[in-house]
Amino acid sequence: MSDGNIDLKAEARARAYSMPLDDINPTDIELWRTETMWPYFERLRKEDPVHLHPAEHHEDGAFWSVTKYNDIMAVDTNHEAFSSEPSITIFDPKEDFTLPMFIAMDPPKHDVQRKTVSPIVSPHNLQILEPLIRQRIQNTLDALPINEPFDWVDRVSIELTTQMLATLFDFPWEDRRKLTRWSDVATAGPESGLFSSDDPEIVEAERKMELFECVDYFSRLWAERIAQPPKGDLISMLAHGEATKDMDRMEYLGNLILLIVGGNDTTRNSMTGSVWALNQNPDQYDKLRANPELVPSMVSETIRWQTPLAHMRRTATRDVELGGKTIKKGDKVIMWYASGNRDEDVIENPNAYIIDRERPRQHLSFGFGIHRCVGNRLAELQLKILWEEILARFPTIKVVEEPKRVPSAFVKGYESMTVIIPSKN
Ligand code: HEM
Asked: 262 CB under 6 A from ligand 1?
């Protein structure tokens, strides 16, 4: 199987280098669905690494694309000049439906809310969680069909990340797929097929309705937890936390969505991405089988190569210089992590998937600075255990057709991927 459609990729390369720079639109979801965005980013990195996309080309107005590793790092680590408010996606919040969440807040409020939930992923808590994560991964893998095609995304990636979230929230086990649904509904666009129509107004109305169901459900759990002494799950932490106990309903919902999406889509797509990357690079799969001690560096390489969140947005709080350009106060700045992770000036042979790189954790996928991913060690742990258990039981996992990608310039992932696990002999 080839890496996608070769003609499509050649055509994208020709287009990327022939169109005027101002016509390049990295937010075009078609580029992500077909994975043809790479040559556009390559050109931006080479010719205009801090590039202003003019307003008339984009329904969300003008925005800057920052595409090189060190420039992205400079933005991400300067939260005074580059604010996370009002939003970390290119869209501004809808006036009648704002969801405050700490990823889209600046200090001091961000810091105290983040501190409230961080203990869930402390090294000590991860040690406690490890046997449970391993047990659940073992059970899930042992239930997979052999010699029969199935969807890896649904049976493994979604199932395991949903189980993890249910554990972190101490959420009713039998209802755990509701978490998957809410996560998908919170981020999906009109073209996702998740809603009854692709009319944007209907989509927004349905999205709201489902998210209100989500907050109603979690409000019942909050009432339960607040009536009990503090425990180690996320709802109890939020309900008893000094910085979060007085949140209103929308802020509770916002932070829930943050934790659900943060822990769900990202790890899910790394799990699928690891199987896809190893299938695309059979020499690396052989290397991994021969050297299982490479699992941790393979995990980091997968997270770089996949870049499950393609970008984060900031908004300039004052006029600021970056890469020889003046970004004006109020301008939208998009840090394209996916592009920075392929920056040939920082990462050697960046388009290649190499599981034993010298510095495998050198990537932008978790961000940097005060918003650096809270769950990064948990995500790595889940993936490490998954691969230890895969190597212990399956000779290989064979991807049988090109995966279906998520049509999004934000969540870089897979909707489905059919695989077969052959029997051992
Ligand atoms: C923040 C990526 C897994 C919870 C972030 C950010 C990125 C990211 C890019 C923003 C960083 C920035 O703005 O500088 C990822 C990836 C993951 C992953 C690639 C998996 C491979 C998780 C997990 C959890 C989680 C498992 C929860 C259990 C969060 C939270 C934030 C965050 C709460 C907000 C942090 C803040 O604003 O201070 N993540 N994440 N993430 N992530 Fe993750």
From this structure: yes
CB 48 within 8 A of CB 316: no
Q: Is 193 left (phi over 0), alpha (psi -120 to 50) or beta?
A: left
152 belongs to a structural domain: yes
Across 78-100, b (16+ Cβ under 10 Å) vs e yields ebebbbbeebbbbeeeeeeeebb
Q: Is 176 in the pocket of ligand 1 (CB under 6 A)?
A: no
Q: For ligand 1, say whether the CB of 266 is within 6 Å of any of its atoms.
A: yes
Among protein residues, the one whose CA lies closest to atom 42 of ligand 1: 373
CB of residue 366 inside a 6 A radius of ligand 1: yes
User: Where residue 162 sits, what CATH number does that domain have?
Assistant: 1.10.630.10
Integer angstrom CA distances of residue 297 from 284, 288, 292, 364: 12, 10, 10, 15
Q: Which residues contact 275 (CB under 8 A, 6 or more apart)?
A: 152, 397, 399, 417, 419
323-324-325 Cα angle (round to 5)? 95
pLDDT per residue as tens digits for the range 76-99 = 999 999 999 999 999 887 766 778
Q: Ligand 1: which of 373, 382, 411 to mutate, judged by most atoms within 8 Å of the beta carbon?
A: 373
Query: Is the CB of 310 inside a 6 Å radius of any atom of ligand 1?
Result: no
Nearest CA to ligand 1 atom 18: 266
Domain count for the chain, please give it.
Answer: 1
* C-alpha of residue 374 to centroid of ligand 1, in Å: 5
**Is the residue at 342 inside a domain?**
yes
Atom 1, ligand 1: which residue's CA is nearest?
373
In a domain, 90, yes or no: yes
Residue 2 is predicted with a pLDDT of 46
pLDDT in tens, 368-400: 999 999 999 999 999 999 999 999 999 999 999
Tokens found for residue 224: 């339960």
Give residue-wise pLDDT tens across range 299-355. 999 999 999 999 999 999 999 999 999 999 999 999 999 999 999 999 999 999 999
- Residue 138 pLDDT > 90, yes or no? yes
- Looking at the domain assignment, is residue 425 inside a domain? no
Amino acid 220: pLDDT: 95
Q: Measure the CA–CA gap between 88 and 363, rounded to whole angstroms.
A: 19
Q: Which atom of ligand 1 lies nearest, measured to the CA of 76?
A: 14
Range of the domain at 303: 6-420
Helix, strand or coil, per DSSP, at residue 66: strand
Report how far ligand 1's centroid is from the alpha carbon of 46 (Å).
Answer: 29
Q: For residue 104, name the pLDDT band (cuts at 50, 70, 90).
A: very high
